Prior knowledge:
Helix content: 55-70%
Shape: elongated
CATH class of the largest domain: Alpha Beta
Low-confidence stretches: none
Number of helices: 8
Strand content: 15-25%
Number of strands: 7
CATH superfamily of the largest domain: Histidine kinase-like ATPase, C-terminal domain
Amino acid sequence: MQQKFSPSLILFLSLGLAAGFACIYTILSFLHGEYEETLPLEAAIFFFISFATLYLSLEWLILRRLKSVTVFNQREIKKLKELEAFRREFLGDVSHELKTPIFAVQGFIHTLMDGAMEDERVRVKFLRKAMKNADRLSSLVQDLLIITQAESGEMELRIRKFSIYELVTDVVESLEYKFTKKNRNITWRILANQHEHTQVLADRERIQQVLTNLVDNAIKYGDAEGTVSIELTASGGKMYTSVRDNGPGIDAEHLDKIFQRFYRVDKSRSREKGGTGLGLAICKHLLKMHGEEVTVQSKVGEGTTFTFSLKIVS
């Protein structure tokens, strides 16, 4: 809302102040015994000069202030509108993502309670499906807590130096069972490029989460008989960690959106693989807290590479 200020108020204020200054000028002249016939004329000239100076000065100062306040208010209003739009979109996305596993668990339990419990084969099958959706719901809630803390600034980083090569090895070994899970035969390799002992400065636990998300994505969406490569390269005082798969790749139209919350290139395929849609968004925000960033390069039919940077300890 644009604020208005009456010019007549500036006029009356200037007149009053100029008249006051003219009276003070006249009184001081009397007190110093400098009364002459030209004093009224001098007082009048002093009044008009004071009035003109005050009016122009006040108008410039007040209008400039009002203009800055108006611009500030417009920016605040725009920001509030953007936040409100984001809130509505976020709540809609969260509701949609929570609804799917909750309804699935509810449906399986109701079916069992309605008589399917007696059939052992059906009972075990439905309980496994209910457990799978409950696990997905738990992962979704956990990811929501992490991204909320990261965005609000409530998350504290424990910055220390550590070997990025050792962390990469730990993450790959912890996910090793997934490389051959569900008819997959994925191989992995770590290209250290003589950086086995290079140390970086960051929160090890949070960077472990970033690496876990990226490697897990490479396993899920890479070729079932492919290779996941993690490569370390150094440049300009920073260590660049790249996670590469040789899967189907991502169309260029999706590359600038994949770090958004709940964004999926193929929604049905992503849900089948158990993704929450928050993994890449978490990577982006955790690295942003470190003052770093994550980038993506991909070609359809050739695979995808995610790369993030960290400061090297001198």
